Amino acid sequence: MLATATSTALNAFVEATRNAVQDVLSQALSPDWKVEIGQPETGTVAAESSAFIGLLVTGTISGKAGLVLARADAALIGRAFMGEPPQEAAEFGDEQREAVEELLRQVFALATTALEASFDQVWIQLDNTVSIPEPSQRISFLVASDSRPAPLVFELCMSPELTNALAAADRMPADPAPDTPNQPAATTEVKTRDGTTDLSTLAGVEIEITLRFGHRWLPLKEIAGLASGSVVELDESVAEPVEVVVGDRVIARGEIVSVDGCYGVRITDTPGPRPSNGAGSAAGGALS
Fold first, then answer.
1. Which range of residues forms the domain containing residue 47?
2. Which residues, other chains included, contact 243 with Cβ-Cβ below 8 Å and sequence gap of 6+?
3. Which of 170, 192, 222 is the last residue of a domain?
4. 62, 67, 207, 209: least surrounded by Cβ within 10 Å?
5. Are residues 226 and 87 in the same domain?
6. Which CATH number characterizes residue 148's domain?
7. Cα–Cα distances in angstroms (integers) from residue 129 to residues 64, 71, 132, 252, in the given order
8. Which of 146, 170, 194 finishes a domain?
9. 39 in a domain, yes or no?
10. Counted domains in the chain
11. Is 247 strand, coil or helix?
12. Concatenated DSSP letters for 62-73?
């Protein structure tokens, strides 16, 4: 069943996927890639000449999904991601599949972050054990580049379980207004779709933090060539503050310090209100 996004939750899921595919292709390959949602008459990718990448969605919404690409298109994208020149009738082998899977991991890591605005918690992971039953919801995408005469076509396939979860998300009532700001912190409650939770019960939960010094996009070919002594140049200078990260979120920035012989970070900037005395604090964490 080929369909277009109709519900609010389904539209959010599809749009997050579209944006993520466009952003990753533009950063990893070339800036002229554009992705649009196709119309129902776009058609489906022929099963006998297709490549399927399974996805497992968990969290507030859950179910199975997958991407279907023509094998020739998947080979083209895989070669480009590895830094190899385009080749007509290129074989879609193990190397090309690994390259496409690595690219899609980046796509759905980005989509997962975007979906946090619509759903409390959601994770999308590649899973080669996933197969999509029929009938399934299918959304077609047109993936175009200025360097190609015709767009590539691939489909996002969603199991009935996932589409039902998205439909159920549309029926959930809106969150009530937040509590008044002068409510004591020890008894502050947050309203969720599952009910009311007292945050004081979570005070002892340990959460790993990571210090991030910068980013760098590299073709898979260069990543595979890394060895002892290789230097990867990041996009930030040594004078810039490091980022304190929880999950995929930057919660603060600061400067590296030594705490009892271990690495630490002195907080210099946070998204929320700063302490009235302006003092910084040091915290330990894993380095990336």
1. 8-170
2. 211, 212, 213, 250, 252, 253
3. 170
4. 207
5. no
6. 3.40.1550.10
7. 10, 19, 10, 38
8. 170
9. yes
10. 2
11. coil
12. -EEEEEEEEHHH
Residue 157 carries which side chain, given as an amino acid letter? C
Are 269 and 140 contained in the same domain? no
CA distance 51 to 48: 9
First to last CA, the chain: 43
- Tell me the two tokens of residue 214: 């910068």
If asked whether residues 155 and 28 sit together in one domain, one would say yes
288 residues of the chain, pLDDT tens digit each = 334 445 788 999 999 999 999 988 888 777 788 888 886 555 566 655 788 899 999 998 999 999 888 888 888 888 888 877 766 656 778 888 888 888 899 899 999 988 888 887 889 999 989 988 777 888 888 888 777 777 888 889 999 999 999 988 887 765 554 554 554 444 434 444 444 444 454 566 677 788 888 778 878 778 878 888 888 888 777 778 888 887 767 888 888 888 877 888 888 888 654 443 444 444 444 333
Name the residue type at position 21. V
Asked if the structure places residue 195 within a domain, the reply is no
